[in-house]
Amino acid sequence: MMKQGRKTRFLLSGAVIASLFSSSAFAATEKEKELERRIEALESAFGIVKTELQTTKSALETSQAKNSQLMKSITAVETKANETATKVAAVEKTAPPAKGFRVGNTTITLGGYVKLDALASSFSGGDPAANSLINDYYFPAQIPVGGRGEGVNLTTSVRETRFLIQTETQIGDKKANGHIELDFLDTPLIGNQRVSNSFVPRIRRAFITYDKLTFGQDWSTFQNPAALPERLDFVGPTEGTVFERQPLIRYKSGHISIALENPETTVTQGTASAESDDDVAPDVVLRFDKKWKNGSVAIAGIGRILKVDNSGAPSPIGVIGTIDDTTIGWGVSASGIYESGPSRFTAMATVGEGIGRYVGLNIRDDVLVSPTNELETPLLYAGFVSYRYAFAGKWKAIGTLSGFKSETRSFASLALTKSVYSGNIDVLYNPIKPLTLGFGFRYAERTLENGLSGKLRRAQFSAQYNF
Asked: What are the residues whose beta carbons fall under 8 Å from the beta carbon of 214, sequence distance 6 or more?
């Protein structure tokens, strides 16, 4: 019985132990599975993170590549900008400041100068009338001859003061330009020196340019104003230069210019002078210009039809009905400029018949009326040479010689001008860029056909401010 009980207890104990082992094994299996599940979840999450990291890395590498390329582009742009800034700075340093203002698509520029002249003149052949033009600037035909001098005459004037308006309008790939220029010299209604010294403004030039065409009043194409030397006097070598402003139509292409210009004929009968106002065709001018590094040259030719008709009243000259004739005038003028360092040479030479109105401020008229009431054209010669030296600093010195001579017909009045010669020296000083102060001296002599002569000695001081 006891054995039976021991056996039973042994069996029960074994069952309990087996049960415990079985429960423990079961528990261990469940934990392992749970652990495996967690490990799998972690591996899955790690894979996702790894994928995201790889994607981020790729994106970052792409971004870095783009950033590197962008930095290269930025560097290139900065380099180009610096180069441009350097070029702009260089241009701004050397280029003049911008002028003018815009109205719509038109640029308007204002300019000119204010000038004071003080002239101390001595005339050997008489005393010019008050307010004569020769009191304000060198006018060869007004040098008195045959009278008695009165010593030194001091005059002052601001009549050369000048004002101009220029316009520029872009029209497609071409430009239209306008030019209006005024001063106060040689006006028909002159002022006086009693109280106000007031003078009426006059038109010097007023013209339009478009492409290769010019319409309006400008320097005659027969004249080369660029060849005029630097000077204090309004014209300078007056008797030796072509000098004419008038209405014209001009076409210029390359080195060649051709123009149709105002044809007015000036006529002398005896000692009387007049404008005929009978012209039937414009003066025709053909000109060649050539420039090079150190200078330029211009050669111009002019052809004219000269006419005087006093058949009706009022008669320009002579007895009504006595003159009705036409003749031809011609002229050739060559001028040039040469510069070398501080030196500048300018010169002009002119010859022709029937071109008196174009030379020396009309010292002699275009035509003479003969005893048979026919028109004759006197042959004339004119020219000048000038040399300028620019000293180191702000000083310049200019010396000029100029002359005019006419071969007159035997029937002409002996009171007409045969020749005029002059020489002058000017010294200019620029204390600041827009201001010029100057002192000059001129000697001139005018001789008539009868041999009488008159001399001019003149000292001049000028102050000119350009704006």
From this structure: 207, 208, 248, 249, 250, 251, 252, 259
Q: Give, in order, the Cα–Cα distances in Å from 423 to each of 237, 303, 443.
A: 8, 31, 6
d(C-alpha 467, C-alpha 465), whole Å: 7
Alpha-carbon distance 331 to 368, whole Å? 17
* CA-angle at 86, arms to 82 and 92, nearest 5°: 140
Helix H or strand E encompassing 439? strand 435-448
Closest CA to 364 of 354, 375, 376: 354
89 band by pLDDT with thresholds 50, 70 and 90: low
Peptide bond into 263 cis (omega under 30): no
Tens-place pLDDT, residues 19-54: 544 444 444 567 767 777 777 776 676 677 667 767
- Are 336 and 388 within 8 A, CB to CB? no
Give the Cα separation of 286 and 222 in Å (integer).
Answer: 8
**Maximum separation of any 2 CA atoms in the chain, in Å:** 195
Task: Report the DSSP pairing between strands 101-103 and 152-157.
Answer: unpaired
DSSP symbols for 383-434: EEEEEEEE-SSSEEEEEEEEEEEEE--TTS-TTSEEEEEEEEEEEEEEEETT
Number of H-type helices and E-type strands within the chain = 1, 22
- Greater confidence, 6 or 131? 131
Q: Which amino acid is at 63?
A: S
d(CA 459, CA 156): 12
Q: Which residues contact 231 (CB under 8 A, 6 or more apart)?
A: 237, 398, 400, 424, 426, 440
Q: Strands 245-253 and 417-432, how do they pair?
A: unpaired
What is this structure's pTM?
0.77
